[in-house]
Amino acid sequence: MKLKRTKKPRTKEQSKARRAAKQRNAKIIKSHRDILGIGNLRRAWKGVLTRPKVCFQTKIECLVMCRAASEVKGIIVEIGRAKGGSLALMSIASPLSKIYSIDISNENKRTALKTCKKYKVSRDRYEMITGDSAVVAEKLNKDVDLLFIDGDHSEEGVYRDLISWVKYVKKGSIIMAHDYYPVKHIRRKEVGPYDAITKYILKYKNVKFERLVHKMAFLRKIA
Ligand SMILES: C[S@@+](CC[C@H](N)C(=O)[O-])C[C@H]1O[C@@H](n2cnc3c(N)ncnc32)[C@H](O)[C@@H]1O
Question: Does any ligand 1 atom lie closer than 6 A to the CB of residue 55?
């Protein structure tokens, strides 16, 4: 015979604490929803909340990355796949896009496939390409609706990615670049992205800097 579990009645303090926690959570969720938007982003939102340990971005960076991906119905290119964290999240956020995810190394490909499987991203939604990003750009030769630069973080590496890829990005589209440390005192080892982007914008002027969220820089192709 099954025994019925009887709930202990909550004390006044417990009820009060529960209500306060609910209100706090509602506030957090509302502010994240503002960033993320609603609609088909529900799954992305859940994905971000349980964001894979293999993802290199902070929660807020994941949110803004998903937000940018959600506005795309075309081709997304990710330079630097590693264990597939950002690939899986962008795939969830942008159900009508195809994502080309490039990495110079094959080492983490199995983990990346597992990550996508865990987040129920169907296999036809993405393509994992192994190779140097600059070489792949020439071979792929496709118009890009969203570019995410997170590969070789050296100044030369990021500059080379900009030179090789920006020409394929559609006018008006977004280019995201991770690990952008603009202020001297918070600049750590990786100063490559900041230096390369600054140098590129000054020289080519076909891209403008839009905003920075944590270490995620957003650029827009303007010409
Ligand atoms: C920071 S990780 C990418 C993290 C991933 N975007 C994420 O958030 O889950 C950087 C990756 O870039 C790759 N990489 C480095 N140089 C590269 C190049 N020239 N072309 C393509 N990938 C490169 C490395 O192998 C590494 O896996």
Answer: yes
How many CA atoms are closer than 13 Å to the CA of 51, on its beta-carbon side? 22
Contact 73, 143 (CB under 8 A): no
| Radius of gyration of the CA atoms of the chain, in A | 20
The CATH number of 13-221 is which of 2.170.190.11, 3.40.50.150, 3.90.420.10, 2.60.40.10? 3.40.50.150
103 Ramachandran zone, left/alpha/beta (phi>0; psi -120 to 50): beta
Q: Is the CB of 150 under 6 A from ligand 1?
A: yes
Ligand 1 geometric centre to CA of 66 (Å): 18
Q: Which atom of ligand 1 is nearest to the CA of 85?
A: 9
The CB density around residue 182, as the number of other CB atoms within 10 Å, is 15
Helix (H, G, I), strand (E, B) or coil at 11: coil
Q: Separation of 43 CA from ligand 1 center, angstroms? A: 25
Q: Is the pTM of this model over 0.85?
A: no
pLDDT per position as a tens digit, 74-109 = 999 999 999 999 999 999 889 899 999 999 999 999
pLDDT tens figures, 63-73: 889 889 988 99
Whether the CB of 15 sits within 6 Å of ligand 1? no
Q: CA 130 to CA 156: how far, in whole Å?
A: 20
